[in-house]
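Customer escalation, tier 2.

The customer says the design service returned an amino acid string that "doesn't look like it belongs to this structure." They asked us to rerun it and document both sides in this ticket. The original structure tokens are below, unchanged.
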């Protein structure tokens, strides 16, 4: 025999590995699911159905309120845009009334037209923004000029160049004004 075979044969015999035994842990007793009685099952179904119903009712109520608010907003926006289209006519009638004329019938006709336009605007809920003599409010007024005037109070409007209009809380057009001090 060759040396290689001898070496191979002389190898140590294999010893089986010994596994260390770990102490067994006691397993927790498994819970046996209790069978629900038909009464418990129907009570759960009833509670789930009631919850579903209440959520659906709340969703519908929110939908109804949201659509009513959107409808009101659309109505206000449409009204605002329509009124804004007629404001140049209002301005022209206002300028015409300030002009002197010898023809009283013509003047009376312009006054009646202006009165009709003002009544129509009032019927739509549109109001003129008060300006002359009022305190300047940047949320309603647009200051076109500033003047030093000792007879007027601080931030007081002394002249109105163009009337402003408001519908509810929404400003259709800011009043263009001259502010003192």
């Amino acid at each position: 025999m060759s040396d290689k075979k001898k070496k191979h044969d002389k190898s140590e015999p294999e010893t089986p590995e010994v596994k260390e035994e770990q102490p067994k842990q006691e397993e927790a007793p498994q819970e046996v699911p209790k069978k629900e009685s038909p009464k418990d099952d129907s009570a759960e179904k009833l509670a789930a159905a009631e919850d579903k119903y209440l959520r659906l009712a709340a969703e519908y109520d929110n939908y109804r309120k949201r659509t009513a608010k959107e409808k009101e907003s659309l109505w206000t926006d449409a009204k605002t845009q329509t009124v804004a289209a007629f404001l140049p006519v209002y301005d022209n009638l206002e300028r015409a009334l300030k002009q002197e004329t010898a023809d009283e019938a013509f003047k009376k006709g312009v006054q009646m037209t202006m009165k009709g336009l003002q009544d129509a605007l009032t019927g739509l809920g549109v109001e003129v923004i008060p300006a002359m003599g009022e305190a300047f409010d940047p949320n309603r007024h647009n200051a076109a000029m500033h003047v030093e005037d000792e007879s007027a109070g601080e931030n007081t409007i002394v002249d109105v160049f163009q009337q402003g209009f408001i519908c509810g809380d929404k400003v259709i057009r800011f009043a263009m004004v001259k502010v003192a001090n």
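Tier 2 assessment: The sequence is consistent with the input. The chain has three helices and six strands. The chain has a mean pLDDT of 85. Sent an explanation to the customer and offered a walkthrough call.
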